[in-house]
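S1.2 Input.
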Amino acid sequence: MPADLTDPPLFDRAGAAPQPAAVWRLHVVASPDPDWRGAILDMSDDGVLRDGTQIGRMPDAPFSLRIDDSTLSRRHASFTKANMLLRVTDLGSSNGTFCAGQRVQAALVGHGAVVRLGSNVFVVERDTGLRTACAEPTADLPGQSERVRQVRGALEDAAHDPLPVLLRGDAGTGKGHAARELHKRSGRPGAFVRVNASAIPESLLDAELFGHAGHGALAARPGRVCEADRGVLMLDELAALPLPQQAKLLQLLDEGTVRAVGGVSDQRLDVRVCASTQVDLAAYARDGRLRSDLLARFHAHVVDLPSLTERRMDLFALADALLPLRDPTGAPAAWSTVLHEETVEALLLYDWPDNLPELAATLVHLRRHIGEQPVPRSVLPSTILRHSTVRPASEETARLRTGPRSLQPKNS
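S1.3 Output.
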């Protein structure tokens, strides 16, 4: 049985208290009730949730949220503001209230916390409301968290400005997707061209980027920069660009011209440059590995890409975009509908150190088990099982389980 906690435990995935002007939100990541699955519930004076809202199958409080789920008790849990946190209180439910995978009687939760009530899984968000525009998800940047809205908004601000854009973020956070989003928002008619300088031998990089004028038996050919004329050129890992090519890139940014290897004249181009990095470029500039005057050109538009841990509430929107599912009729199906709620919970609690590539690989693994609906937590990769903070359910809850579902209908 869960302890009766006088001082509830703190479940704050962000590790720091959010700002006081923010609005609490519950992202309904998984729910048997299609009316609420995928919903974002604001806790405000005019929102779906109010301070002290009860959630259950048939709650009777003045402010309540009714979810059609037989694994919920009539009055299952309540959410109350507690200074800079939310207090989640179990109201004597049969199947329990879980925070960070632990069954609790009461708990204080913060931004990014994962809460499970019956078969419903929520992610808590403290939204500062600093960026309310660009709320609509896109194919390259799905999700509705504040962090991804900020990214979409920053790209919209930069889309029609000729100055270059710098995308910063850890490996796998989707910098390529953000660059494609910039290209789409810019409306530029030319191609989107992506080049990873670190993947090209230095001896070939000059010709690969800026083209070769041709001489003798060697035919002339345009470089990748020329292919991006009137479009967007994405340079992966700006810090990997050698100093001679940095000088040529600076010429492109300042004068709009390039000269092919072996060429005798400059070619004028209209190229929007977008670069990415996962390292401290200022440190590279101090060490002389990156031209400081080149780095200065990228100060106008700097967009930081959040890790999956920072946008936990978007995880299943990303999953649906990365590896779309179809039901037997061919209609789109959501990943949250084919996974057991404890599987959903474990995925949300995992920290995804390799971000999108690791998520994509995990989805491919889980797809093999979709016939075992709902897909149980036990088939998750061992890395996720070891490192997600889900705790085994109590013996009492385990006794309530029969068949593939973990929770049984309750009349209480």
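S1.4 Remarks. Residues 391-412 have pLDDT under 50 and may be disordered.
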